[in-house]
Design a protein that fits this description.
Elements: H1 2-7, H2 9-27, H3 46-70, H4 75-94, H5 106-131, H6 135-138
Helix pairs in contact: 2-3, 3-4, 3-5, 4-5
């Protein structure tokens, strides 16, 4: 499995685009209800956690895709991922101003940004630990 993940940039590319289309489709759905799960905290709602997770996954997929093409993580990939993530997160919230029953929520956007940063951080760690292992380790895999 690890060998497959090391050698297939197109796998991550397709997952990235599918994930992005799903995110924007759900975000564009009119009058989408918020999950009614009470966490007992007044400042944290379940949908904020969903925003954080969806952007963490999106940026991780982007970094895996671009890293596999170049065979190495570079600062350029990191900056592109950060700028792309912040731009998409901002667009995702702003476009809801034009969707009936939806509204702009700055806290949603904050959690989108946190997801971008978290996804970038953890994807860099995973790339360095799993995908860019030395060749002698990968040659011992069946």
């Amino acid at each position: 499995m690890i060998s497959f993940l090391r050698k297939t940039p197109s796998f991550y590319k397709y997952l990235f685009w599918i994930w992005l289309i799903l995110m924007l489709s759900v975000s564009s759905y009119p009058k989408l209800p918020n999950p009614k799960i009470d966490l007992g905290l007044t400042f944290l709602r379940v949908d904020y956690i969903f925003h954080w997770i969806e952007y963490s996954v999106l940026i991780s997929l982007f970094v895996f895709w671009r890293t596999r093409i170049r065979q190495d993580f570079t600062r350029q990939i990191g900056w592109i991922a950060l700028i792309l993530g912040v731009s998409l997160a901002t667009f995702d919230e702003l476009h809801q101003l034009f969707i009936p029953g939806r509204r702009f929520n700055p806290v949603d956007m904050l959690f989108n940004y946190l997801g971008v940063i978290t996804g970038l951080f953890f994807s860099i760690l995973l790339v360095k630990k799993i995908i860019q292992k030395p060749a002698e380790v990968s040659s011992t895999e069946p």
